[in-house]
Amino acid sequence: MEQTFFLFLEITAFLIFFYGIERDSWHGLLIFLSSAIFLALSLASFDIEKIYVLFNETSGAIESYSTTQYDSVFGYLNSIMGLFSIALGLIKIIVYRESMKPQD
C-alpha cells in the first residue's frame, strides 16, 4: 500500500473513531467502521511503499524507484486502536440498548 493512501486511511479511521465516541445515538455505532479500518491498516503496515522520483541532470532522464518497509509503530498503534474501538463499540451497544427500553 502506498504511504500517502495509508496515511489518508489512518486519518479517516481516527476521524470516524472520534465521531463515534462523540455520538450517543445510533451514529455512535460507526465506531465499528473505524475498528475495521484500524485492523485492516494493522495488516497493511507490513508493506508500506514509498516511491522516489529523481531527475538525472547529466542524462536528462527521470528515474523512479520504490522501497517497501515495515513500520512496527503503525502496526502496534492500529492493532491497539482496533481492539480499543471494538471494546468501546460493545459498551456503546449496551448503552444504546438500555436507552431504547421504555421508561416506567
Automatic annotation (TrEMBL):
The chain crosses the membrane at residues 6-21, 28-46, 73-95. It comes from the Archaea. Keywords: Membrane, Transmembrane, Transmembrane helix. This is Uncharacterized protein.
